[in-house]
Amino acid sequence: MSIKLLEVKNLTTEFKTDKKSLTAVKNVSFYVNQGEVVGLVGESGSGKSVTSLSVLRLLPENGYISEGEVLLSQNNILNLDQKSIRNIRGSEIAMIFQDPMSSLNPVIKVGEQLMECTMLHLKHTKKEAKAHAIEMIKQVGISAPEDVFNRYPHQLSGGMSQRIMIAMALSCNPKVLIADEPTTALDVTIQAQVLDLITEMKEQSNIGVLLITHDLGVVAEMCDRVIVMYCGRIVESAEVSCLFENPLHPYTQGLIASVPKIGSGSDILPYIKGRVPDLSQMPIGCKFAPRCDGAIEKCFIEEPLLIQLDNQRQCRCHLVSERGERNA
Amino acid sequence: MRETLVELKNVRKQFLASKKFMEEKKYVKAINGVSFEIYKGETLAIVGESGCGKSTTGRAINKLIDIDEGEVWFDHENITNYSSHMMKPVRSKMQMVFQDPYGSLNPRMKIRDIVSEPLLVHTNLSKKERYQKAKELLEIVGLNEGHLRRYAHEFSGGQRQRIGIARALTVNPKLIIADEPVSALDVSIQAQVINLFKELQREFHLTYLFISHDLSVVEHISDRIGVMYLGHLVEITAKEQLYKNPLHPYTQALLSAIPIADPAKKKKRIILKGDIPNPIDLPVGCPFNTRCMHVQDKCYKIVPQLQEAASGHKVACHLI
Amino acid sequence: MKVNTEIKKKQEDYKFESPMIELSRKFLKKKVATVSFFFILFLIILAIFQPTPYDISQTDYSNTLSKPSAEHWFGTDEYGRDIFSRIVYGTKLSLTVAIVGVTVGAVIGSILGLIAGYYRGIPEMIIMRTCDVLLAFPGLLLAIGIVAIIGPGLINVVIAIAIYGIPNFTRIIRSSTLAIKELLYVEASQSIGVSDLRLLFKHIFPGTVPALIVSYTMRLGTAIITAASLSFLGFGASPSNPDWGAMLSSGRNYIGIAPHMLFYPGLAIFLTVLGFNLLGDGLRDTLDPKLD
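The joint structure predicted for all components is written out below.
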């Protein structure tokens, strides 16, 4: 039995607007084990990024967590004050973002930004921190670490900056790494390099990775387990091979089908009709019902529950749960 | 022999990068001698990573930028030195669809004015006739009459891209230059828009230049594919050929780098070393020599020319 | 499937707010700005309807320099004229001078700014260097210089304010034009084949309007001070005209015995300028998309 590093229980995040509060994430529960890559997949507006920001408590000012627990090595970090949470960020749990260029401070040398974290959390002296920073730059596969140490962020390419971000995230030996669309801004050939690096770093330091992405290709290559989100809810979660072989939720099915595949030779791409509903005008029943081909009347009236199918598999769909009951 | 609609002959374009006092001027070499043709009724996809000059190539064809060297032919006319006045009738025959559906629609105009604007510029139709045509086109791309009076910000990304496509169609163009039209969209919406492009091509006999960074997207839409790297066209061939038998080492690496949405098909990837070189200081010789795994002495000296390796399959590589 | 279509219909029917309503709601949330907006509105109503209890030139030598009372709210001046009535009339003068002057400056400045930002090159150099020269003068000195050349009088004050405002508007509009010109929808229109003139006025100019509105409001405040200063110095309205600056000027001699002669015109200038500045601030917060 592997160790649960990060566990999120019934997380609900809301945003206050002029008129009312909107629920961006509702009742989301999942966990990340040691040495495991968990994918959080969804389209824009699915709540995947809000989930990760909630975990780190980095929500924008009008966002708040109304319910739930975030357990980091069994401690609920939602109860911590600002100071303790700041200590945890970077040292226990680290994050890398989509846009590496804007995540680095443009007026401070790359090396100094790397030193900051270890001096703060590991109480390194300046000399130790510098040695450690150069070591980290070397580890993320940059050939001339001393040279890069003295550069400013704008002198680095996109792929290089993302490597630095990874080095920075891992420099204080966190237990969990949250990667929010880490390769979306990068070119395909550079993406391949960075994904390889993340896998390598994970194996080296045995951390848990929560990988947030919209790209099912990345999920298939990287993840052990996948959580599919739609409209702020988990609609399906499964082991990666199960999910791609036999997707249960109609949304997952549609999503997998609509990915263009090389060599399929098909003329018309399968697609999901309609579009993701706006947060302020959510459908009453199942959030996917208006776009679902198999929707029955029940789907428009009652929101289905997330049913545990077997120990690794969950699905939120009336059709699936009814089928399950019939079988049982 | 198929009829040619667009032909580029050895086109070059560089942009001034920096002009420092007492220093040599630096230029970004965006396109370095690109030649290809687009046949009537086909879809040519130009694929490459950022900074490869694919967008600049698209803009060179409709003269949103002026080229430094070479010739651009459209519909048997040499439009290379056309003034903006002479371009006006040509522009109505080639329309553009942009990558960012949020930025490409004027936020202060109603949809019916956006869609009917090309008609205002190129025809003498009355306002009523223009709005009527706008309405018809919105219906063709899957929107309805109720959307006519709204503003762009009220629409989702996919809907906006449909509006952009409707605008491009109003003046019955021959060529549509689509610059990364689906890369800003979610997967499920992406498929809708690609299918729409295909339907419209059949219905209106359009020719497409489809610019993309994603080899997996263009397979579903293109007839031929050209791969660009650092302002050079390195390979161009029919779609089936490119996926089955890619000849240029860069094309091979690009194909193998695409993550496949099927964990059962885990494959061995060719991981390219290093970054794309800066287009200000191009490598001497083959542009790909800094990252290529089959590099030879010759590659550091001579720029390989695009040559026919098989019928209709052109590659620029010394090893072929 | 009946339910399905019904829900779909409901979603289609959902109406989006027009941008104007959204903006005004955002503006009304800013209390200070809203108060100044209604204050300015009140001034404009005063200027139009002129609710003056006394004739502004009606003298009353039995009642000169009297303190504020129920009869004369703001007291009387050295000729026994009612100061309240003269201030109300002065509102009309100040607002007209400021609005006409700033509007002329804004129109000319915007056109120059659009040309400079859109065409770049030589036109830009000529326009912007001329602006630099004009901006190098300390504000009031330029206005005094202009009036000194073309002679005193209210019309000439208007001209001075207009010229004084042009370089500011040119700069602001040029910089917004430069930014908007790079936006994708402008390039999209170019690719359609839209003419330069249409591109400038249909696609680029509307984008500069928020910046224009904000600086227009702010300039109104400055213009009122400039006009009052010119009149105070004797370059503007003739002393018999109840201009606020001229009233301050004539009250100066009686500062020891009748301070109210200075206090009320001064207060009028102060409140009006403050009102315009606060309104401008509020508009900036409302219209600036960066603050969202």
